[in-house]
Design brief:
35% helix, 7-stranded parallel β-sheet, alpha/beta, Rossmann fold, 14% strand, 12 helices
Length: 336
C-alpha cells in the first residue's frame, strides 16, 4: 500500500522501515498534515500521521478528494482526527493504542522527581559551579497523597509505580479498575475531592470536549499551594494562563509537563534559529516552578518499535482487504 508518512522524524524512520520489511511503499516527509500540506498526499492510498497533525473536517475532505482512503495514527490518542467525518467520507482510521504505557508512565514519574527534587535546577547551578543546596530541598514521596486523573493503561502503570514509592492513591475515571483497587489500595473519588486532597496530581486522560481545560481557575483553586501537577496527557486539558497565574502567586507547588496546548508546529522541531513568538510558552520555559519536555514521553526504543509494528499491521490489513487490528471506525473496504 502506497503510504505517505507525515511528520516523519529522523529518529522514528528506522523503526518504521524495520517493521515494514517491504510490505508497504512508505514515503516520508517532515511536513505536518494540515490544510496547506494535504495536497502532498495526491497519489497515495494511505497516510500515517502523528498527534500534532491536523485531520479535521476540511483536511479530511481534501485527503478524500486526493484519493486517500486510509489513515493510521502513530499514537494512541486521536483527538486530532474527526472520526465522524472520516467515517462519513469512507476513510478508515486506526491508531497505535498499546505501544508502551510504561514509557509514558515512567516519564511522568521522571518529571515529578525532576521538579520535586530540583534536578534541573541542580544541574544548572553546577554548570555555574554553584554547589550549594539552599534551593534544592525537595520532599519524600512516601505517604504522599497521589491523585490520578484517568486510570487507563497509562494511569494504571502510574498507580503501580507510585504505590511502590509508598504513596496513598486516589483516582478519577468513569470506568473504575477493580484490580487497582485490590492490588494497590487505590480508591476512586470525585474530581473536586481529588484536587482538594492530593499532594501530587497526575493527568493521564484523553482530550475531548469534556476534558478540555479541565484544569482551570476553579479546579486549581481546589489544589493546595504545595500541590505538584504532572501532565502526560494533552496540553489542552490544562488552561495554561490560569495555571501560570497560580504559579506566579505561589498558590501551586509546581507544574511538570510533557505537553503544551499550542505545541503544534513547535514541539519536535529545531527552532533554535527562529524561536517561536509564544509568550505563554516562554513564560512556562522560564518559570522556576515548571519543568517542560517536548512531548518525548513516548520516545523509547520499545515504544517506537511497537508504534512502528502497529502502523504496519494496520496498513497491511487494509492492503489485504481486512479490518485494521487497531481500527477506530468500521467501513466496508472498497479496495479490490
Amino acid at each position: 500500500m502506497k503510504t505517505l508518512v507525515y511528520s516523519a522524524k529522523k529518529f522514528e524512520i528506522p523503526f518504521l522501515k524495520k517493521a515494514n520489511e517491504g510490505l508497504c511503499e512508505l514515503h516520508f516527509i517532515e511536513d505536518r498534515l494540515h490544510t496547506h500540506s494535504a495536497n502532498k498526499a495526491v497519489g497515495f492510498e494511505a497516510v500515517s500521521i502523528f498527534s500534532a497533525d491536523d485531520a479535521s473536517v476540511n483536511v479530511l475532505e481534501k485527503l478524500y478528494d486526493f484519493g486517500v482512503r486510509y489513515i493510521t495514527l502513530r499514537s494512541a490518542g486521536y483527538d486530532n482526527v474527526n472520526i465522524k467525518k472520516a467515517t462519513s467520507l469512507g476513510i478508515q482510521v486506526a491508531h497505535a493504542p498499546k505501544y508502551s504505557p510504561h514509557a509514558i508512565a515512567e516519564h511522568a514519574v521522571g518529571l515529578l522527581q525532576a521538579i520535586n527534587r530540583k534536578i534541573v535546577l541542580a544541574h544548572r547551578q553546577m554548570q555555574d559551579h554553584d554547589f550549594t543546596l539552599d534551593n534544592l530541598v525537595g520532599q519524600d514521596l512516601i505517604r504522599k497523597k497521589v491523585g490520578i486523573v484517568g486510570t487507563g493503561k497509562i494511569g494504571a502503570v502510574i498507580a503501580r509505580i507510585m504505590h511502590g514509592f509508598g504513596c496513598l492513591l486516589t483516582a478519577v475515571d468513569p470506568n473504575e479498575n477493580p484490580e487497582l483497587k485490590s492490588a494497590y489500595d487505590l480508591s476512586y473519588t470525585t474530581f473536586d475531592d481529588l484536587c482538594r486532597s492530593s499532594d501530587i496530581v497526575f493527568l493521564s486522560l484523553p482530550l475531548s470536549s469534556q476534558t478540555h481545560h479541565l484544569i482551570n481557575s476553579e479546579s486549581l483553586k481546589n489544589m493546595a499551594a504545595t500541590t505538584i501537577l504532572v501532565n502526560v496527557a494533552r496540553g489542552g486539558i490544562v488552561c495554561t494562563t490560569s495555571l501560570l497565574e497560580r504559579l506566579d502567586q505561589d498558590l501551586l507547588g509546581g507544574y511538570a509537563t510533557d505537553v503544551y496546548e499550542k505545541e503544534k508546529g513547535i514541539f519536535s522541531y529545531d527552532l533554535s534559529d527562529t524561536p517561536p513568538k509564544e509568550a505563554v510558552l516562554e513564560a512556562l520555559l522560564k518559570h522556576p516552578k515548571v519543568v517542560l519536555t517536548p512531548h518525548q514521553a513516548y520516545a523509547t526504543h520499545e515504544a517506537l518499535t511497537n508504534i512502528a509494528m502497529a502502523t504496519i499491521e494496520n496498513l497491511s490489513a487494509w492492503d489485504r482487504n481486512l479490518m485494521a487490528p487497531n481500527a477506530l471506525n468500521t467501513i466496508a473496504s472498497s479496495k479490490v
